[in-house]
Request: fold
Amino acid sequence: MPLLQITDLKKTYVDPDGQTSTVVDVPSFELEHQEQLALAGRSGSGKTTFLNLIAGILTPDSGSILFDGQELVGLSDSRRDRFRANEIGYVFQSFFLLDGYTALENVLLGMMFGPGPDTRTARSLLETLGLGDRLGHRPHQLSIGQRQRVALARALAGKPRLILADEPTGSLDLRNADEALTLMRGACREQGAALLLVSHDDAVLDGLDRRLELAEVNRAARQAVGGES
Amino acid sequence: MGYLRGLAMLVARSLRTHLLSTSVTVLSTALATGLVMAVFAVSLQSRNAFAGGPLGFDAVLGARGSQMQLVLNTVFHLETSPGNISWRIYEDLLEDSRVELAIPYALGDNYRGFRIVGTSPEIFTDFEYEKGRPLTFMPGGRPFDPRRREAVVGARVARETGLKVGSTFQPSHGIGRSQLAGHVHEEEYVVCGVLENSNTPNDRVIWIPVEGIFRMSGHKLRGSGEKYVPEDGVVIDSEHKELSAVMLKLQGRGSGFRMSEQYNNSGKEATLAWPIGATMAELLDKLGWVNRILEFVAYLVMVVAMGSILASLYNTMNERRREFAILRSLGAPRRTLFTVILLEAGTIAALGSLVGFAVFAMIMIGAGTIVRDQTGVALDIWVWHDAFLWTPLGMLLAGGIAGILPAVKAYVTDVAQTLSRDH
Reply:
């Protein structure tokens, strides 16, 4: 059984003019356990919405999302929260670290709502990612590359089975992007987590086990015009 | 780090991030808490001190008139004298088996605003302002000799006027500070003793022999109904002498009832204020509306503090939407965010309540100083009052209520929308 099995997933929005637009229309999609898959999507192809649906941040209008055989669509708000806290690690393009917290605390927050905060694990993760001397630093005291690594550590901290990465290297220069990708892939492999990464950067996309065009997966992306969803 | 510690971290970080608004809100909460506790404590302590405090006397006998004025004038050394009674009444009281101790008070003069009370030496030997606590002298002091122009000064008088043993002064005519510019008598008194602090109105008094008041230049005695001016070297006949009041310690409650009946209901010459505590309680009851207003104002301040908690949290909600969305994306349930905001409100209220005790202490020290300066009565500011419990609890509840609206705002944060806006 695949880790993630999506069938006939649809998400539509009503814009301010009252027009309904379909952002996600995925007839079928699968991701195996520990697989590292890259989805290539340009801006406005519905990639963020797709990831948010998988993470349970958004609810679909219809369709099915099976995570290791468990249906996520129709779960209550609180059960989706619990699922997200325990099974999903999310890496955002803008990292979304909390400014008032140290690197270590940001990582601890990644565990807080799932398995529970464990300082030793959080510290060890940051050390593995080369931030052993930056534990007490706040995000604004870190370089962009270091922030990205803290965000990765936070995503991995709860030992999730799936890491979702939305343009994870979008804010990094070439050298940092390459390094971040290597770290991310290695860490996922080490933890036995699957990786679903969306990007528009070929250099990133080609570095993973498998690559798919989002437009192939998402029928709505074929018709999408302009603006990120 | 457990979940609760995690919550504590979220609360602490948020309060630290908004340190200025947190501090201002804690301060306003502290002022409200301190003020409410102080209003109730001052009210209780005033009643205890004025209506049940250590006064040493059971009753006061004075001129026909208001019992309240009599008590204020003689026990607390406030107000003016309602008039005089004849010396004969005092002599009768000395023989009265219902009376344990009778001490004469003759008023009418002051020194730099402090009252001069003409009295008998028994005030230093037989009188106890509290059981087992007579007026005691500072080293080198002694009671006055009733035949000499000697004076004993209260502790506060000594502090403020600088009078010490051996100092001399000339009394001025009249009672109280309004008489500061009054006629200065030619007689000169020598201080023979300074009293230890007693935290009673006696600290604000200068004691001289009662004979001294009778013979003060310019004084006229009307004990017999006719004006009489004492002459040097001539014994004053008892019929001419008069007193402002006689302070009494009675032999049991029955004596008080009987004497009250005798003087207040049957007699026409004098008024007996008994029991003194009841007279003061009546006064405080009449002034109860002042307390009600103060309580009302204190509650209003509490509502304002509650509003400031609401405003301080609510104002940060927009800038914190991103934080809430990130936490939600990490799996934080909505109720956790709701709880965090309520805990923040509760923490501000709790910190405010803690600091409120310091504010309370400052208010009480200030109030205690004013009351002591004005009346000589010391408030026991550290006595337990239920307000010390229910005010902080009430503030916690108010803080919790104030936190509900911001907490709801955190609860309904739209994760996807907020994060996509910040992307």
Summary: The mean pLDDT of chain B is 89. The longest strand of chain B covers residues 99-111.
